[in-house]
Design brief:
The protein has about 325 residues and is α/β, with parallel strands linked by helices. It has three domains: about 5-80, Arc Repressor Mutant, subunit A (Orthogonal Bundle); about 105-125 and about 200-325, HAD superfamily/HAD-like (Rossmann fold); about 130-195, no CATH class. Helix content is about 55%, strand content about 10%. The protein contains 15 helices and nine strands. The strands form two sheets. Strands 6-5-4-7-8-9 form a six-stranded parallel β-sheet, with helices on both faces. Helix 14 links the parallel strand 7 (about 275-280) and strand 8. The longest helix has 30 residues, at about 75-105. It starts with a helix and ends with a helix.
């Protein structure tokens, strides 16, 4: 049973499990027998000792209780999860209220059907220099130093693991996953310390975000892990422009931007797909997939080599495309 179901069950059922928790809140640690006798004495329950023992085992398997020798205590880790869960719910409710408020404040005329504009992080707003250095240089460098092998050998081992675990590990895009996987003696903050100077927005990102954010709520939809996304946004001082940030790995446990992710985001924002405009630099994930469900999708090609109607060379051109969409044919 998951955390949500466990919390729901304890909150909505005055059953034996909640009475056990109540007793342990007042006094712990207690053995199964001590809990059994206190339940009978306080509440006059007719349940058997075997029944109590079964409930205790169930609560232990859920992570709510922890058994130390023969005694049971409330599990502090579970309580921390409850706190984190409640904080997450509160944050999501506050975000939802902000979304609804901003949509009302930025109500558009009858000729406009665009309600929210979505950006991909890499390609649209930032170059991939930081990411290339992180994955192909910094992690192999630390690996080489720690295991005392050449940089070339470290690069081969590290990138071979990247390829081997692609699509098989939930945290594949998360630097913390690889730090743990390779048993590296570092952490995320130390890992990126010397790389932050390579986080530089494209020339057109700041002026376009400033202009569009005054008219539309803006969101981010990216393959990047949330820690990397927030690092880039913080350094560029872009957090002020975005109403919501979606990471496929952190928020949806998916490797790529699939159709169901775009649909779920539209549902969460309470908009129809054709009320969302998205821009990114991947033909499949930023154009074909969102476009297939009616999202107004555009590709940014900063080389200027492609000439299709849905291709823009920079964000200034993207802004002009939005103007065209604002007027009903």
């Amino acid at each position: 049973m998951g955390l949500v179901e466990t919390v729901h069950g304890l909150k909505n059922q005055e059953d034996v499990s909640s009475l056990i928790v109540d007793i342990l809140l007042a006094m712990q640690p207690l053995t199964a027998k001590q809990i059994y006798f206190k339940l009978k004495k306080r509440h006059g329950l007719t349940i058997t000792y075997q029944g109590i023992h079964k409930r205790l085992k169930g609560l232990e398997s859920q992570g709510l209780l922890k058994k130390e020798d023969l005694e049971y205590v409330l599990n502090p880790s579970w309580l921390d999860q409850v706190h984190e869960f409640c904080s997450l719910v509160k944050t999501r409710l506050q975000t939802r209220e902000r979304i609804v408020t901003q949509l009302k404040e930025k109500s558009l005329s009858d000729k406009k059907n665009i309600k929210i504009i979505s950006f991909d992080l890499g390609g649209a707003l930032f170059s991939n220099e930081f990411d290339e250095l992180l994955w192909r240089s910094e992690i192999p460098r630390i690996y080489a130093g720690q295991y005392k092998i050449s940089k070339e050998a470290a690069f081969e081992r590290v990138t071979a693991e990247y390829r081997r675990l692609w699509g098989k590990a939930e945290g594949w895009r998360n630097p913390d996953f690889w730090i743990k996987h390779f048993h590296l003696n570092t952490n995320y903050s130390t890992l990126i310390k010397e790389l932050k100077k390579h986080i530089v927005p494209y020339f057109d990102a700041t002026p376009i975000l400033k202009k569009l954010s005054k008219k539309y709520p803006l969101i981010l939809i990216s393959h990047a892990q949330d820690n990397i996304m927030h690092t880039k946004l913080k350094i560029a001082k872009y957090e002020q422009y975005f109403l919501k940030v979606f990471s496929t790995g952190s928020n949806f446990i998916k490797m790529t931007k699939e159709v169901d992710i775009y649909r779920e985001i539209c549902e969460e924002l309470k908009i129809e797909p054709d009320e969302l405009v998205h821009i990114g630099n991947n033909s499949d994930f930023d154009y074909k997939i969102p476009n297939s469900i009616g999202i107004n999708a555009f590709l940014i090609d900063r080389t200027g080599n492609r000439k299709e109607p849905h291709i823009v060379r920079d964000l200034y051109e993207f802004k002009e495309k939005i103007k065209e969409l604002e007027v009903t044919p």
